[in-house]
Amino acid sequence: MTRYRDFHRRSIDAPAEFWRAEATRIHWETPFHTVLDASRPPFTRWFVGGRTNLCHNALDRHLATRGQQDALVSVSTETGIERRFTYAELYDEVNRMAAVMRSLGVARGERVLIYLPMIPEAVFAVLACARLGAIHSVVFGGFAAASLAARIDDAKPALIVTADAGARGGKVIDYTPLVDEALARAEHKTARVLLIDRQLAPERLSASYLVAYEPLREQYFNAHVPCEWLESNESSYVLYTSGTTGRPKGVQRDVGGYAVALAASMEYIFEGRAGDTMFTASDIGWVVGHSYIIYAPLIAGLTTVLYEGTPVRPDGGIWWRLVEQHKINLMFTSPTALRVLKKQDPALMKAADLSSLRALFLAGEPLDEPTAAWIQDALGKPVVDNYWQTETGWPIIAIQRGVEALPPKLGSPGVPVYGYNLAIRDAGSGERCGPGEKGVVTLGYPLPPGCMTTVWGDDKRFVDTYWSEMAGEPVYSTFDWGIQDDDGYVSILGRTDDVINVASHRFGTREIEEALSSHAAVAEVAVVGVADAVKGQVPLAFVVLRDAQAAAAPDDRSKLEAALLATVDRYLGAVGRPARVHFVAMLPKTRSGKLLRRAIAALAEGRDPGDLPTIEDPAALQILRSVLEGG
Ligand code: PRX
């Protein structure tokens, strides 16, 4: 363990020296004058004065040496279309897209909201923004109109880029009616919507702001758009994520620190080398997609595989066949996807030649031991669990095989990653917990490069949400419970707040509650996450109706349940849809009116709710029990 320990120690004791050395991994148009500015805690600035560009580092820099190597391989099992782009071709496409965006008035510092399915144009759009110095905000295609509208109002984009439709599991999902509705709901009026026409669905955007991409692409076919050299601490993107309130937080990221952190992670954590092929089965709307579908593999000179579809169509062997066909070296997905694959015929996996694969990476939610044991055994290659958050942009806890291949321990993603001064602390006192003691996973100041710089447009919210003063120092809370053993391995024991994790998708229960509350029949609602064998957690809703009689008959109940679920689909998106809606006469609350979500979740999982604060009306618990027993 000494190599890892020394490496980690150095990164914490002398962060400026440590990261100065790592910064040579990327191109700096102008060198930085200060590695680390920690003069204004909890804010951090890395590589101050240095000027660089993420798109240059992802593309231009590789043209001379790997122009003819594939940069992007896009596979859609929904449309049956496969498209490949060498670094030179991807460079051309990104320039075209950048020229089109520029012609529509997009300039440095302006926001571009990207609402696209998993198509190459999504990668073009992200990199085109980076090229122009515009700030992209990618919104997951599974989100519906109200979520989209909230993000439009917060980011105030100059342009929205969308497509006619996405597709999943053989179902076409029309995007344009959602965008139209979102724009009607939003207060911020975006002048232009750039539409990528996949010819999957009729587009139904209002003509007043619709701009078709294809003719403009033709017009700017030979365009070259120079990279804007940004100061390292300017913003590269805003990515919204869920918290305890219904209002999503815009996680803001820098340019230089992010590029350096990703480049270093490719060596020390992922062991990805230039020329390798990496398949990250996530979505560009999530942080894993930003970091490990788009930026990190390209910055490090790899070929990245973009996949539209599910892991089980046309059959459960599709991902393993992709590994064989594309000689994939690194694969990255979520425990939920593995639990789905585990249920498939094992012959499908055995039939594929997986000899190219060196390691499988998993993140986004706890990796349960049976799934971990199964995949270790079935694959016979290193399986690397890694724990992090949208806020950090890259792993916080992992076995860093490129530093030292420590033995994995079931139930733990590994040890703290270099750069992160991780401590398990008592939730009340803030004191450090001893080995084996449960506490909150916290990170010391300063956070390493690549982590969020602030909440978009709201420094106060950044400070108030994440940072508190503990033992006289600023401390960042991950809002996860954890426990660290004598060897330094950390296990994650679930969130401390009302955030739930459904199939690796992060949701605030408040967001789902707000969606349900928008239905006229609903008086009160509580949403909790309960354990699920495949998705990790699923949301369950408990609803008090304005008119209790409305759900008296079983028929009325199921009709109303369907109507409420449809409301969530329309408002938030089907990804946030509760597994069930239970109708109850009242909800358990404290005397001061706070919902006892934890008690509700415990009952729903058949656990003892334990010690409870004084309940306003204890009958509420009995009501819940009988409803849950009734099914
Ligand atoms: O609760 C932790 C869980 O997912 C949260 C972060 O989700 P998100 O912002 O979507 O970022 C995902 C980036 C991989 C964390 O606060 N989580 C993430 N990875 C793990 C995990 N829980 C346990 N084990 C993990 N490997």
Please give a handful of descriptors for the protein shown.
alpha/beta; 20 helices; 631 residues; binds adenosine-5'-monophosphate-propyl ester
* Bound ions, cofactors and other small molecules, one mention each: adenosine-5'-monophosphate-propyl ester
Share of residues in helices: 25-40%
Instruction: For the largest sheet, list the strands in their spatial order.
Output: 5-4-17-16-18-19-20-21-22
* Continuous helix count: 20
Cα(first) to Cα(last) distance is 51 Å
Calculate Rg over CA atoms: 24 Å
Describe the 3D structure.
The chain has a domain at 505-629: GMP Synthetase, Chain A, domain 3 (2-Layer Sandwich). The protein has 20 helices and 33 strands. Strands 5-4-17-16-18-19-20-21-22 form a nine-stranded mixed sheet. Strands 7-6-8-11-12 form a five-stranded parallel sheet. Strands 23, 24, 26, 27 and 28 form a five-stranded antiparallel sheet that branches. Helix 13 (335-342) packs across helix 15. The longest helix has 18 residues, at 554-571. Adenosine-5'-monophosphate-propyl ester binds next to helix 11, strand 20, strand 27 and strand 28. Belongs to the ATP-dependent AMP-binding enzyme family. One of its GO terms (biological process) is propionate catabolic process, 2-methylcitrate cycle.
